Amino acid sequence: MMLLAPLALLFGLSIPVLLTFYLLKVRQSEREVSSTLLWEILRRDLAAHEPWQRLRWSVLLVLQLLLLTLLTLALARPASQRPAPANRFAALIIDTSASMAATDVTPRRFDQAVAAAHQVIAQLPDGTSAALIEAGSTARVVVPETLDHGALDQGLAGLQPTDTTGDSIAAALGIARALARGRGGATVHLFSDGAFPHPSEWDDLTGLNVRFHPVGTAAANQAIVAMAMRPDPTGGTGDQLFARIENFGDAAVQTSATLRADGTTIETRPVDLPANGTAQLFFLNVPSNAKVIQLQLDQPDALAADNTATLVRSMPPTVPVLMVTRGNLFLQKALQALPGISVYQVTPRGFTSIDTSTYAVLVFDGYTPDQPPNKNALIINPTDASWLPLHQVVRDPPITLWRSDDPTLAFVDLSSIRIARASEVTLPDWAHPLIESNGIPLGFIGQNNGQRVIGLTFDLQQSNLPLSASFPIFISNVMQFLVPPSVARQDSLMPGSPAVIQIRPGVDRVVVQGPANQHWEIHPSGSSLSFTQTSLAGLYQATEYIGSQSVATQQFAVNMFSPSESDLRPRANLVDHDSASAPTPAEQRPIIHEYAPWLLLLVVPLMLGEWWWFHRR
Amino acid sequence: MPATSLLESRLLHRLEGMTLVSRQRLANQGQGDRRSRLRGQSLQVVDFRSYAPGDDVRQVDWNFYGRSGELFVRLYEDEQVLTVHLLIDVSRSMDWGTPNKRQTSLALASALAYIVLGSYDRLAIGFLADQVIGQAGPFWGRHQAAAAFAALAAAPTASQTDSAASIASYLSRLRRPGLILFLSDLLSPSAATGLRRLTAAGHEATVIHLLAPQEIDPEPAEDVRLIDRETNQSVEVHLDSETIARYRQRVAAWSEELAQICRERNARYLRLSTDQDLERGMIRAMRAQGILS
Do A209 and A279 fall within a single domain? Predict the structure, then answer.
């Protein structure tokens, strides 16, 4: 026990001052009496004329003495001193990449790593702060630096292995180094199987104590490291599937692979894998109407996640497109020729009373709505509107410029296009010209409040564009611009990669089901959403709901296809080393625990009690 | 102060018929309703003696002569006027207390004056402080009650008290003994001496010791400086319950000391508190003590 401010004990002089106040008589009040004759006789006995009086103990005096004593002690800052522990900070990095799910040790490498981390936390000296970092698909701090070791244990309990690659080990080491901030006594603990190339950041931790806690053995593993499917180039009825199987082991392995289409087994084929070698598999006549194609290695091994690969055939959803026109056969045919597009038609007069929420794209022909469209829209031959005012008719405008670098004009040649009549318009701020005639926009493109708008300022029937070969290409480009690609067009995703899910109009809820039967409920706010919980390999299914009714289902697959993770053999050469620098004297400061706050906490009820006692009746 | 404000008319009506009791027959000048030690011309026979030449033959008791054959002369009590002296302490110490001692003493004096005048006794009023600072009267007969009231209402005020000096001064002016009613708080160092002098010249004295309730039982307080109303001298006391108890004992002993002086000199002593009702408290107490009948 020590006093950090011993001079403050001088405040204790207030105690005799307080006692003096109690010994001194308070100022006397005066009272007139008829005569002091009778009082005079009592005067000697009363001794009331003395400036001092006998000390009378009272509750108030005791409370005030206690208050002053506590305040004096608090001001003197009593404290106890303890030596600081040798390691004041520890960074714990847990590898949650795919290889950590290997079962070559019981129950998994990950579980052994977590157990080792718990043991290290339990052995951390009191007063040592620590942080928990996860190295999964990305490196992230799970528990910021804390003295609460229980919080670290809780953080560990919330971790699970993923099917992501271990590329984030280097980033996690960088985070640990930043958190250590060059503290000489800090220690970085890495709990991993080392199934990744040697990270250079490990050697950069020269100023820190570095400890590698390896888990797992040099287990052999076989994995599907690639798979792709394509239509039969010879025009056959089925599709062709290619897969590559790799053996990450020093012994040859004989196994078999089973191909399933929509859950139905198509074929089981024996696979002979040489030591550290690969095998290529080709499957012909894969049913082209099957949506989900799955290949599985039948022989279990240390890592299950890479024994199955899944592909989802591209089946873009039908996009509803509403044409607002008095009739335009060219445009209608061009749109209907596009796959995955359903064209609906309405006259401009009927458009005002129609609900457009169910349509993904609006096509205005010879009509401009009063307000900018609230959907992705194509506007052809606009009429006068406040947001797109017409000025004059331009006759025979030559096309002097078109932006061929714009995706909507890719492979479109407008050099031979002639236009009989076009309208000169003033473009809104959010639009810019796409096709020009001496500075007059003949076509424009822009994005207003998230809605994509593209337009042509002339009547198609007043030009030869619909008759040219560029017209269907242009319309196809325009629709690709107006309808973004959905997840259904992505055959396979890497673990941890975001999946873009195209949302149908009116959908208010999307439920995604993961390969381990997890469920995520998402309330979309736009026409698409980005789903990022793809850390596990397997088949995902996104179901769209309007109210309680399911309106559509999309599937997408996540595959490991990561030879570095499938190779479970340790490769990183991680050697423990200690800090070269000793803790600075500033870092060796002892831990001082002050008691003044507790004393002040006692002062508060004492003050309240003194106040209550003084004012009580 | 209006003369009539001291007493209510209803009280005056009740005071009629009361008389001051004199335990001695006092000779005085004039003829009245009081018996005198001087034998004279009234109808009240007080004694007989043998006839001596020169006696009035009309005084011979012939009936007794017829029965015994001896001549005896009747001796008649001569009925004289009694003079009552109302001595009122008007020092500053009397002008204190709740109810105020001065107001109370003047009201009581008015009642006594009314009784005296209603009994056809002569009334003289003296206002005492450190000396005799005022006199009024003599008054005789009920018709002079208003004048007596006016004199009481116009009582002077003085600063200090000297009971012995003022009493001695007043008594030195009297040629004959009388009935003296002394109304005072007796808060004077010379009060005991004054009481002794009161009966020295053969006067029949009655002392009405009037105190305020605050003088009998002071209110407790913290440390307080008591300032004398007359002398401005101060006494610092801690008015706790212990001090007050000792003060009460002191007041009781002091009162007993004064009462003892009165008893030794055949004077009557009555202590009254100003919070007593004039009629039900004070007058009744005086009747109980035989001061009034």
Answer: no
